[in-house]
Design a protein that fits this description.
Elements: H1 11-18, H2 37-41, E1 49-55, H3 59-69, E2 76-82, H4 86-93, E3 101-105, H5 109-114, E4 118-119, H6 135-140, E5 142-143, E6 146-147, E7 150-156, E8 158-162, H7 173-183, H8 198-207, H9 224-237, H10 246-254, E9 260-263, H11 267-273, E10 278-281, E11 296-305, H12 312-322, H13 325-335, E12 338-339, H14 348-351, H15 354-363, E13 367-368, H16 375-390, H17 396-414
Parallel strand pairs: 1-2, 1-3, 11-13
Antiparallel strand pairs: 3-11, 4-11, 5-6, 7-11, 7-12, 8-9, 8-10
Helix pairs in contact: 3-13, 8-9, 16-17
Length: 415
């Protein structure tokens, strides 16, 4: 799951594509409405309102955030601070007064909301301010009917292939299965995937109507759709390395020993460095259900601490700034990330980027990673089940029922 954040390192892939290109959306020079308009008109002097924003990502992201927030000067001064071990740091911060906001993935929203240390962003801005966001990104930010994040960009998995090896792209999973069967030989594989990793197999579950856990924190490991997906998916595993871990599979693909792979965009720069002519295609459709593989997605954005409620106008201005199309475009150009704001795709540089547009296409079917606190125990439970089925050849129904029981026990122990 954590590898998803690595997709921000796509600058090396798209830098050439963006070089010298102009945006069709002009940059904003500052906040739309100063929080000091009334004071300024009367000539009164004032000190700027100061906000602190934490992040734990790369220096490049920190710089991009700082650049956007600097547009709020002189009325509002935002300091972007890198913080290690964000989850633990935020839990300790509580209502201490710092940070005011933070930049992070959406999947911990439920945990922080339950702790009552974050506030819905709609306490500061209106739902209309989120109207241009892709629906999936707002869904990811929503916990118990409250929106807790202003989304900036998202990631999900992709179907990648080696153009020198795969000449015809499978449109359906049966075509993909037959291709893997015919082309897996002599140490070369037709298709690779982390077959026993919950993050990847969830895509197959969703396409059969199953799930690991839903928005109500109800495990779904023994649902008929989940078990059907695991059973159908298992036949693909026969034509993959038994361990199925990231290091093994990515190495095979980067060495030209795999025709195709489902992976994140983080693999693309490495493939290009290795001289692989990499192709990007739509996710194949499950023949039986007529639905494409529906991967998990991760959304990155800004959330607000409850302790910042005393700075409501300044926080509102900061959120509105980060939601502007210009912000998403700047991130796309610098990092190769797929913007959450739908208006960003009117920009020629964004719409002309193959990686970003494939991510956007996949987002139409992607399912946000569950943001309920109970998901924390589901990763291990699900992967233990998948290991038993795919690597030990244990009975699917028995293992799914056992995993479901274990999930309920672990969730109950959290209370």
């Amino acid at each position: 799951m954590k590898k998803i954040i690595a997709s921000i390192f796509l600058a090396s892939v798209i830098a050439g594509a963006f070089s010298g290109c102009g945006s069709t959306v002009s940059s904003s020079s500052g906040a739309e409405n100063s929080v000091y308009d009334s004071q300024s008109s009367s000539g009164a002097s004032h000190e700027p309102i100061k906000l602190v924003v934490w992040h734990e990502t790369t220096p490049e992201i920190g710089e991009l955030l700082q650049k956007e927030f600097d547009k709020l000067k002189p009325d509002i001064e935002v300091e972007v601070v890198k913080k290690e071990k964000m989850t633990e740091s935020l839990k300790l911060a509580g209502d201490s007064g710092e940070p005011d906001m933070y930049f992070f993935a959406h999947d911990k929203i439920g945990t922080f909301a339950q702790m009552e240390i974050i506030a819905p962003v709609t306490d500061f801005i209106s739902k209309d301010d989120l109207a241009d966001m892709l629906p999936m990104t707002v869904e990811a930010a929503t916990y118990q009917n409250q929106v807790y994040q202003a989304p900036i960009f998202f990631e999900t998995t992709m179907f990648l292939y080696n153009k020198a090896l795969m000449k015809q792209i499978p449109k359906t999973t049966e075509e993909l299965y037959n291709y893997a069967k015919e082309n897996t030989k002599d140490g070369v594989y037709g298709f690779l995937e982390q077959h026993s990793t919950a993050y990847y197999v969830a895509a197959w579950m969703h396409s059969f109507g199953g799930y690991i856990i839903n928005e109500n924190a109800e495990p779904g490991l023994n649902l008929s759709g989940t078990m059907e997906a695991v059973e159908y998916h298992k036949k693909f595993v026969e034509y993959m390395p038994i361990d199925g871990d990231y290091q093994t599979l990515s190495t095979l693909f980067l060495e030209g020993k795999a025709h195709s792979i489902i992976a994140g965009p983080w693999l693309i720069p490495n493939a290009k460095e290795k001289g692989i002519d990499i192709g990007i295609a739509s996710m194949p459709t499950i023949d039986e259900t007529g639905k494409p593989l529906m991967s998990y997605s991760g959304v990155q954005g800004i959330s607000v601490m409850k302790s910042a409620e005393s700075k409501k106008e300044a926080v509102a201005a900061a959120l509105k700034q980060i939601l502007k199309p210009e912000t998403g475009i700047d991130f796309a150009k610098a990092m190769g990330s797929a913007p959450a704001n739908s208006k960003c795709y009117n920009d020629s540089d964004v719409s002309g980027n193959e990686i970003i547009m494939n991510l956007k296409q996949n987002a139409e079917n992607a399912k946000p990673m569950p943001n309920v606190p109970e998901m924390d125990v589901m990763w291990t439970v699900t992967e233990n089940m998948l290991t038993s089925v795919n690597k030990n050849n244990d009975d699917i129904k028995t293992e799914c029922e056992k995993a479901q029981k274990e999930a309920f026990e672990k969730i109950e122990a959290m209370k």
